[in-house]
Amino acid sequence: MSKYQALLTRLGDVVSLREAMAVLGYDQQTQMPAGAAEGRARQLSTLARMEHEIFTDDATKHLIDDAENEVDDVYESDAVSLLRVVKQDYEEATKFPASFVEEWAKETTLAHETWVHARANKDFKAFESTLERIMVLAHKSAEFLGYKEHPYDALLGRFERGMTTAEVDRIFEGHRPRLVDLISRISQKPQVDDSPLHHHFEQDKQREFAMNVVQRFGFDTHRGVQAVSVHPFCTSFGVNDVRITTRFEDNFLNPALFGMMHEAGHAMYEQGVAQHLDGTMLSGGTSLGVHESQSRMWENVVGRSKGFWSWALPMLKETFPQLADVSLDAFYKAINKVERSFIRVEADEATYNLHIILRFGIERDLLGGKVAVKDLPKVWNERFEASFGITPPHDGLGVLQDVHWSSGLVGYFPTYALGNLLSVQYYNTAVAQHPSLPDEIANGEFGTLLGWLHDNIHAHGRKFTTAELTKRVTGGEIESDSYIAYLENKLGEVYGL
Amino acid sequence: MSKYQALLTRLGDVVSLREAMAVLGYDQQTQMPAGAAEGRARQLSTLARMEHEIFTDDATKHLIDDAENEVDDVYESDAVSLLRVVKQDYEEATKFPASFVEEWAKETTLAHETWVHARANKDFKAFESTLERIMVLAHKSAEFLGYKEHPYDALLGRFERGMTTAEVDRIFEGHRPRLVDLISRISQKPQVDDSPLHHHFEQDKQREFAMNVVQRFGFDTHRGVQAVSVHPFCTSFGVNDVRITTRFEDNFLNPALFGMMHEAGHAMYEQGVAQHLDGTMLSGGTSLGVHESQSRMWENVVGRSKGFWSWALPMLKETFPQLADVSLDAFYKAINKVERSFIRVEADEATYNLHIILRFGIERDLLGGKVAVKDLPKVWNERFEASFGITPPHDGLGVLQDVHWSSGLVGYFPTYALGNLLSVQYYNTAVAQHPSLPDEIANGEFGTLLGWLHDNIHAHGRKFTTAELTKRVTGGEIESDSYIAYLENKLGEVYGL
Question: Active-site residue A107, yes or no?
């Protein structure tokens, strides 16, 4: 057996353990009874420890080094790509002392409960000291990882390998004023009526319709399953086992319908990774930003387009006769309503990135020592007012709204906004290469788009970084002009700007 | 840290891996998409290999040996019991060479598919050579395990530690003629009408009613969940996470109703193990026979009793008005109908053990070299005719009906019959100590019975063997007189013998 084969075998165990952990996590969020939490934590921590031990062992390093002498030098070949990616993974994983990993896991597990109560009671003080400890750990973590310019670079890089604070700042500042301006112009126009989305909709029928849509998109139920959970998510246990979950509301169509399109976008990415990469460390999406580009493309660029609904609305009306009198134009406007609101997860396409840019700035300044945890409510509200023109009435609708910090996820938020930008850049490239795409979508045909995504993005798995992939696909870099143009065009029509 | 503590820690990893494997198995049977089979096999085989490596490592043996010098000498203390049980587990696990384990896994995985097709085509020849190889492996396995008198002892002992072929033979031959006689007398009486069980019953309502019943029994949904699967089963990932599954038929009440009581019986055993044994190798039921005693007690001794239905039938009628005109007497007779039939899993309480005794004799004679695989259809049909007075029209209703052999499970069948015998022995003991029990059941109160089972059987987990436990509980040994008396009494009334 070659050293490369031996490495693959060793890493195969790591992948299998990670996939098993993902199954346990999925079960936890979809089925597990409440009383089982402690046992599940025990099972997961055992698997996590074994996974970490096997992966970070010196034997892995030696196999990587030896294997490098065996493989060709084609940058994008499976072997060269695997070694490149695994080396980076290995270096990252071995930077943290075991004691720190344990402290981190313990602190964030406890923090979650504290945050849940603090948010419920709109009481930032109850979360403050916990968040202070987490930020100290985030700082330490940046020091372990190392960085060139800004400690935030290190945290960002865990979710978007190679991305820097300066680059994100440039991209974000490049479109923030234009978003503010767009939203301001919209606010001066007659507002959109979204009451058609707030009828009573039977959950069974919501599920059936949304599943029909995402299967038509190309979500493969031979290799995927849909279930119900409080917080919708997508997870995968390999290329051929991808799960999406849905949250239903009886009186609001959006959470299940657009939520399922969103998760199916993630799922089709995972299902589209080349079969021969299954079970290797090249399997899965390359970054959170690219992942989000897929979910947002299907949810928004396709799923909130007029063409799509010219095909889908008649079927929706068959499912829900209460919508019989709603015109395509009225429905299209309703699902594209823009509104200044406090909660990120409920935000529309125009305001969403502003929510993210706010969080990015705050995280960067926390890491840079320019903002103290104790001042967060004040800073949050001031900056929110500056971007949105409204002030959260309490911290539950402000600084306490997101789960991320309590889970130790600092540096994660920017990927959401990058995903929005990329969704339009990738889609525009696909249309440039296949001008018939919009017409196909208006006829309920999605094969060309999905095939293009499979070939150009999904199949590669983790071979290329976001920047490399974007260069290959679009010929350029991640940028915000395309997204702004997309919003101006779409919302210009909706609001008659 | 003491050596005993170190051993507990090491074994804790083994238990966590086993529990994780059980989660993956449960997901596989309840949710996993068809295309994921290969990936799941990869994940499971990785975990199984790690579990086996950790458990059978010399380090485990050394810790066991060292720990033995630290603990007290109280036979039933946690520490002494754990060491006793783990030593036996360890010795058993290390008896098989890794190459044999691999061959076994491979052969039985392939055999399953072969058996499925052979049964569907009623074609024993298509399964014959596969079954021959499995029996060769079963033989080898008996040699690896070692035995005193009969190679079948070794196989039996894997499912009922300490049980011998001679003992099973004595117990089975002790009641076989009496079963044959009872069934013969019943067949001469007017037969029971079970048409009330064959109405159309909505699945949602079946589920709701059966769940109400088993929750009333004491199945704890804070630490348990019910799901749907093709083959009903119970599995547990620790004391606080026990899953049961159900198969529904639209036009037959029994599979879901009595099936759920049965699986809940298993589940309450797992949930009743003492909390401080959770995560240790003493957690779980002590043997398949004792496990089956719990499922059969709740399904049959309680669930098919007149007292229970005097309480439950009015509620069942509320759920299913189509039963409004069925009297308690008629319903009681319907659910206790005795019928000579070909299929074990559909058998009633009187004929069930005859199905098992047939299989036991055949397995014993296969292992003893008295019956050849190629003669099985002939032997099966002759012996079936001798016990039941009818001959299977084809092998699909005969020798090919059970999945067990294709999975390598030789020596498993007897535990079903032992469970039936024990269910009545244990129940009678409980009634002797709590004479009000039958009246409580007739009032829908099950707390005394469940509490007694928890204290006397469940809490101990794997501390005692079936024989030890039965001695502690009943003061005697496993025997068939009680079961026969129970059947004579119940079916005497139903059939007016």
Answer: no
CB contact (8 A) between residue A43 and residue B23 = yes
Query: In the A/B pair of chains, how many CB contacts fall below 8 A?
Result: 116
Decide: residue A174, CB within 10 A, 0-12 exposed, 13-18 middle, 19+ buried.
middle
The minimum CA-CA distance between A20 and chain B, rounded to whole Å, is 6
> Which range (B107-121, B269-283, B337-351) has the least confidence?
B107-121
Nearest alpha carbon to residue B394 among B412, B407, B381? B381
Chain B residues whose C-beta is within 8 A of a chain A C-beta are 12-13, 16-17, 19-20, 23-24, 26-27, 31-36, 38-40, 42-43, 46-47, 50, 220-225, 227, 237-241, 278-279
- pLDDT tens digits for range B62-115: 999 999 999 988 999 999 999 999 999 999 999 998 889 888 888 888 888 899
Query: In which residue ranges of chain A is CATH 1.10.1370.30 found?
Result: 151-497
CATH class of A3-150: mainly alpha
d(CA A35, CA A18): 24
Which residues, including other chains, have CB under 8 Å from residue A302's CB and lie 6 or more apart? A217, A261, A308, A427, A441, A446, A449
Residues of B in contact with A237 (CB under 8 A): 36, 39-40, 43
Considering only CA atoms, which of A44, A53, A176 is closest in space to residue B19?
Answer: A44
Contact flag A23-B19 (C-beta cutoff 8 Å): no
pLDDT of residue A230: 86
Q: Which part of chain A has CATH 1.20.58?
A: 3-150
CATH 1.20.1250.20 fits B145-497, yes or no: no
CATH class of the domain at A151-497: mainly alpha
Determine whether the interchain pair A33/B222 forms a contact, defined as Cβ–Cβ distance below 8 Å. yes
Contacts by A468-473, CB closer than 8 A, 24 or more apart: A469/A286, A469/A290, A470/A422, A470/A425, A473/A425, A473/A426, A473/A429
Residue spans in chain B of domains classed CATH 1.10.1370.30: 145-497
ipTM above 0.90, yes or no: yes
